[in-house]
Amino acid sequence: MDKLCRLLIVDDELILRNGLRYLCNWEAHDIQIVGEAANGEEALELVEELQPHIVLVDIVMPMMNGVEFAKIMQEKHPQVRMIVLSSFSEFDYVREAFKYGVSDYLLKPKLKVEDLLTLIEKVKGEMDLSSKQVVKKDNTSSLLKQLLNPFHQEVCISSPLEEVMPEPNFILMKCKICDSYKEELVSWVHHALKNINFIETIIQEEYIVLANLKHYDERIFLHTLREAVSYLTLDKVNFIVSSIFINPSSLIQISNELSQLLGKAFYFKEKTFILQSEMKKEGEKKEFDIALFNSTLNGLDMESCKKQLLDYYEEVKKEQGYDEYSLKRFCQNVIYNLINTTSHLGFDISLLSKDKIRIFRDIDKATYFEELVEVMKQVFEKLTTLMNEQVEQKNSVILSKVIQYVEKHYSEDFTLSDIANDLHINYYYLSAYFKNQTSENLTAYINKVRVEKAKLLLKDEKLSIAEVSGLVGFSEHNYFSKVFKKYATMTPTSYRRKQVGWGK
């Protein structure tokens, strides 16, 4: 290097500061120790005065610790690089400090001159020591906002952008951001892109970064980001990264495309960085078969209902036809449908209905597709448990009540709905329940009872076939004969002849 690297040592232990000063012949390695400080406050004053390139700072100090110092340094002197010194027990502090632009760290108990020199050489290699402002330029946030404003873009797209971004290649990336982690995320991006020219801004909860590259392509750019991802403590951040583009006039179009794709980032749980080319802009949105779903639900086959829904979710993930907001609204509609239908089936699911607000909140809070599906699985498990508990209670009385009703009313022209209304249960539930309990359709059971009653009446020679038909609940004589033959294997007339000897 043509110019010496200026190094400032910050540590509250005088012995360590002296040890570092005389650790080696610094100037032989193109390094000049320009000063020492015993705490962060003192160091901030020296930074202003001495203009160091690198600060070697202890993480635990009185008055102002290394984390607080790093935070202020990033705000006031982002061009200065920082290397942290720590003990084995202080890594949580070190991790915190990385949010504020720290380049690397060394453990005090294992500090060796060769390791320290290697690290300083690495940091030096990432810097232009001939310039005081190594990384970022001021007032670029407003420039990027103007570039993304279609009413102002033509005014500022040429010379102002060329001044701060002279290279021919551009990459745009976006992610959602909120106040709770804004500071940490921005700090991480500054750390990750410390060797790349970029400008940034925040517009309506979107964090937008425009990078300017000379020889990079998307893969190398992503590799740079992924190399630094271990320092990112946030586990629910997805950046959508555009392809390389060379014409700044296409910036607004690309920005709009990325905004649309942000709504589909939740399909990519394992990826912090998602290439625009990996995502489906217009995925096929296959309609959910709600009629089949309700039919299965009316039959109380909860496992089949759940499987139908989960299979649909797999199709949704494959096609990416829904954005995050639309899929969450679909899930809420499914829950409304489950509550309404099971209530009409006669189940008391007030516990689930009361919990609806919390469930909807969990749906809205779901960051990734898998979390959303898990919420729906839990809804099915809770609903199934509630229904099973009530089915067990109902099983002890419903069957006998149905049998009693048919025995009492077989001579009347009643329907399954009449039985359901009398027992205060849903028609669909009654039909499915009876079939599950007896392996026989309820209509078939009623007809069998009527046929057995008809057999007894047919022995009375005074009654005509039509009269017998009416006495067992059939309003049409021909239909009675058809049903009787189905279950008695002969017509009513043949049965009477066989029983009383007519025609002999």
UniProtKB/TrEMBL annotation:
Modified residues (4-aspartylphosphate): D58
Name this polypeptide is given: Stage 0 sporulation protein A homolog
Keyword 4Fe-4S: no
Domain of life, source organism: Bacteria
PROSITE patterns listed in its UniProt record: HTH_ARAC_FAMILY_2, RESPONSE_REGULATORY
Gene3D superfamilies: 3.40.50.2300, Homeodomain-like
Cellular-component GO terms for this entry: cytoplasm
